[in-house]
Write a structure and sequence with these properties.
about 10% strand, two-stranded antiparallel sheet, 8-stranded parallel β-sheet, about 45% helix, alpha/beta, binds flavin mononucleotide, 15 helices, about 375 residues
């Protein structure tokens, strides 16, 4: 496997491994219920009149490949030896569960094609529903043909374009993005000409209703709201700056804006009425939060850091095979919970959770009035 020169990692490779380490062991979330899940109460049906085994979790996504459950792992990594191991392992997890797997940003691969193998997972998981990943700025600068080549190189089934202006404004180092102009045009071009479904995602700061509306007008059919409540990339980048002893204006702003953005539950609720499939992500780590997201109108639930932590803990304890098994078990537990909570609504198909009554209280109710 080609992975650049392992003895002299590039600044981008160091950043990728920093991200993995900080997400595994660092303090990169916020305390309390920032996703506002406790402001959603589901309504128990004591007379469901069905068998648990009658419940169908099959979900349509962006290709003919139906998902076995409304769950996916969203984009995380690539570009280093450790990232390659994670991609390889989590791809096998997702293939086994019949759910999509997102690669991390392929920017590093566009800058150094020798790193392509760290993203190539189809040889380990040939039936996987694989999602490529690139930042909106890189897509704008590369153009549609080069983006298509990046997708082709890893044989992906869809492309996720990430929007992360807050994180980039905090990120230390010279390759942080400061110019986010011209984004909507490239999204429109990609939707029209890429010949692959395009998912537009945030990275933990959430998509507002206005942004979802603009994306829908540009022809985007899939959005991943990735709201506040889970991994805070603003906090993470501030911490990296502090670790690098750069107590800069960026680091200070990052600490100030650690919870900048739209809580995940609010983002899901506000996106649901638009003609897009909604992926709910940002701090979803259990079946109850996942089911609440589905009741609020999500089509699919996405997870990143919670799955990575299970995988890396198990990897460190007993190696790669154990990490795959442990992560399958952890996600399977969430899937079982979604199945049970669907049954506790008295409906046979998980997609019918969307139309169920719920009680919205507290701050989430304030967001609903927007
Ligand atoms: C280690 C790690 C690396 C990530 N890298 C990317 C990335 O390259 N591209 C992207 O779109 N999102 C990236 N994300 C963001 C996730 O896809 C997700 O939107 C965000 O972390 C919120 O989900 P979570 O709270 O479940 O972690 C990364 C997440 C993690 C944990």
């Amino acid at each position: 496997m080609t992975q650049g020169n392992p003895s002299t990692p590039s600044p981008s490779q160091i950043r990728k491994d920093d991200h993995i380490e900080l997400c595994h062991r660092g303090n990169v979330t916020l305390s309390g219920d920032r996703g506002l899940w406790s402001d959603v109460s589901l309504i128990h049906n004591a007379l469901p009149e069905l068998k648990l085994s009658d419940i169908s979790l099959e979900t349509e996504a962006w290709s003919a490949l139906k998902l076995k459950a409304p769950l996916m792992l969203t984009g995380m990594t690539g570009g280093t030896e450790k990232a390659a191991m994670i991609n390889r392992g989590l791809a096998q997890v997702c293939e086994a569960l019949g759910i999509p797997f997102g690669l991390g940003s392929q920017r590093i691969m566009s800058q150094d094609p020798s790193l392509t193998d760290t993203f190539k997972v189809k040889e380990f998981a040939p039936k996987l529903n694989l999602v490529s990943n690139l930042g909106i700025n890189q897509a704008r600068d590369l153009g549609v043909d080069a983006v298509r080549a990046l997708c082709d190189a890893v044989e992906s089934d869809a492309l996720a374009i990430h929007l992360n202006p807050a994180m980039e404004f905090i990120q230390p180092g010279s390759d942080a993005d400061r110019d986010f102009s011209g984004g909507i045009n490239i999204l429109h071009d990609l939707v029209e000409t890429l010949e692959r479904p395009v998912i537009v995602k945030e990275c933990g700061c959430g998509l507002s209703e206005k942004v979802v509306s603009r994306l829908a007008n540009a022809g985007v059919k899939f959005v991943d709201v990735s709201g506040v409540g889970g991994t805070s990339w603003v906090k993470l980048e501030a911490q990296r700056a502090l670790n690098m002893k750069e107590y800069s204006r960026e680091a200070r702003l990052g600490l100030l804006l650690a919870d900048w953005g739209i809580p995940t539950a609010a983002a899901v609720m506000l996106a649901a009425p638009y003609p897009v499939k909604v992926i709910a992500s940002g701090g979803i780590s259990n079946a109850l939060e996942a089911s609440k997201a589905l009741v609020l109108g999500a089509d699919i639930v996405g997870m990143a850091r919670p799955a990575l932590q299970v995988f890396l803990d198990a990897y460190e304890a007993q190696g790669e095979d154990h990490a795959i098994t442990a992560t399958i078990e952890a996600l399977d537990e969430i899937i079982y919970g979604i199945r049970a909570i669907t049954a506790l609504h008295g409906v046979k198909h998980v997609r019918h959770l969307k139309h169920q009554e719920k009680v919205i209280s507290g701050r989430l109710r304030d967001w609903a009035k927007l």
